[in-house]
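Aim 2 progress update. The chain analyzed this quarter is reproduced below.
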Amino acid sequence: MHPPTWLTAFLDLPADEFDAAVAFWQAVTGYSLSAYRGEREEFATLLPAAGDAFLRVQSVESGPAGVHLDLHAPDQVFEVRRSPGGLAYCLVSGTESERPAPTTWEDGNRSQVDQVCIDIPPALWDDECAFWASATGWELVQGGRPEFRRLRRPARQPLNILLQRLDEPDGPVRAHLDLSADDRAAEVRRHERLGAQVDRVHEGWTVMRPPAGPVYCVTGRVPSADPT
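Predicted structure tokens:
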């Protein structure tokens, strides 16, 4: 497997939530939407004003809403694979290289979807951490809390990968999106105006429940202004 030169986060959305979820994430990001594609017109891409795309949406016929990663590399043959804990991911061909800058809103606050958090039950923790470090070739380092590890993102990559050890003893490995923002409280209020609800508040992040699609977090991390 080639080390990825780019990552894409895919929102996997049940058909009955698809339109509402896509509209919500367009509003959250400020991105436009590509033409639909696929046999059922089930795929689309969220398009930043500048830089290469790294967020896509997919209408799924069964199963709950979720998130998966695409790992891009030039001349990569398309494959669907699973991590040791069963989280699906895809190997795809791509040559993207320009990371978009954060979006600046009317109040001057900047925000950006810039992280995929992989949620891992304790029994699978070490295997999943080792797997994602090997799959990406990125350095695995300890996070700011005991339950977090992260992969050190190379320059130009659009997404961080955070690994979170869950409290629940078992269950599936899953993933969600995280946003960074200059002002976390202002960003949460903006999302509430778009129809999301606060689910839980932690010291460094707020868990949000959107009007459609999977839960996500607004974090206290400050977005990078440098798209390289």
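The chain has two domains: 6-93, 103-219. The two ends are 25 Å apart (CA to CA). These observations will guide the mutagenesis experiments scheduled for the next reporting period.
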